[in-house]
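Q&A log
Question type: sequence-to-structure
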Amino acid sequence: MSLELKPNLRLSQQLVMTPQLQQAIKLLQLSRMELQDLIRDEMMQNPVLEEPQEGEDTEGAGEDAKAAEKNQPLLETEEPPPEAQKPSEKMEEVKGEGQNEIDWDDYLNNYQITRTAPSGGRPSPEDLPSYEATLTKKVSLFDHLLWQIKLSPFTPEEKRVAMLIIGNLDDDGYLQVEGEQGDPLLAIAADAGVSIEVAGRTLRKIQMLDPVGVAARDLPECLLLQSRHLGVEGSLVGAIINRHLRHVESKNYPAIARDLKVPLEAVVAAVRVISQMEPKPGRAYAGEDPQYITPDIYVYKVGEEYLTVLNDDGLSKLRISNIYRSKLKNGGANGDGAREYIQEKLRSAVWLIRSIHQRQRTIFKVTESIVKFQREFLDKGVAFLKPLVLRDVAEDIGMHESTVSRVTSNKFVHTPQGIYELKYFFNSSIGSVGGGEDLASAAVKNHLRQIVADEDPKEPYSDQKIVELMRARGIEIARRTVAKYREVLGILPSAKRRRYF
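Response status: OK
Response body:
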């Protein structure tokens, strides 16, 4: 058999992900803040993009997007708008505006007329500090302890150990040395080059600082430090902390009473003292800054109908710079690859504007479809949320499920019932008693939360009892499903929810 090369012609189809399509898909799944960062980066890298100034006509951005959607050739044959100026005139205007020149005559006249405010009077806005100057840095646990160490009688050797100790505290205020399985104090002493006695003495001094219980190595030591501060270390409280914390967790108070040979009432009183202690001393200094949510879209009720409005506040209204338009049309970009460079940047800018507008329209369509399916939720609340899957919305608006999934990720909507992520409206269905209408899993979780909130703290409901109460409300649910939803909601089992005081 001989081998030879022969030409062969074959026609086939395959899906090609162009860079433009990849960019459009990427923009769909970005959150609002990520989109703002991307637009800011593109404006810094692409000189063709610009943002209209305040009060300036912003119709150019919409025209650029429409031109991009019609696949018009890169703005070469488009006539310049009437208000467009020559490049030299435009550059002179921009240069003059960018100088921020001061009218000295007006300033001096105001300076001569303005009088000093009387003592105790309201200060002038010009005399007040800027908003940025009024912001303060949040005090961390390390800073708080360092301030106390500087005011305490530590020797230079102890101060070196103290810096290592407070530098190895976790967010809860516990002493944890990374990679060490035994006593972290041994690693601290080795790193500082001191004896274990010096390290232990320094640790005891730090444990006397505020907050009480800081620098403990485990929970019992943390609670014992606080009991020592309260003066109850040698009482029943200290004995329970040393020997029966696991029974306190499971609220098995009779077992504690039998082992310590004390009345149950005394155990309950001691546990009440323990429950008022702080198991995480560093909690007050480790809180993260609040994350404020800006909705991507608003849903308003106007009469009997719901109106969907996109939130464009904070998003740059991009457009193509008239300067570069004119350079291409007037032949001012010839030679040295300047025309090719501007063409490339124009192509990138047009595709970005088109992708952003496409993203906004897709969010609008998906939200309108969700409003149509979840109208009863908007009218009455969470208990009336209906089961909904991505396929329902995708078929309603004529898009693929993956597109709907990308659009609903990290996007938020403001409704009459509050602010929700778009993913919140997609829930699995839970059957109802008697073959009635199914309920959404979020609505069932809301029922579960209400049942637990209304129970008697001294006799909390078991999972089986919650199943029976759900069935009385017309919800058919299994016990293991109740246990799963309870864990999702952060609700403890009935044994740990029981209260003795």
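Response note: The first strand starts at residue 49 and ends at 50.
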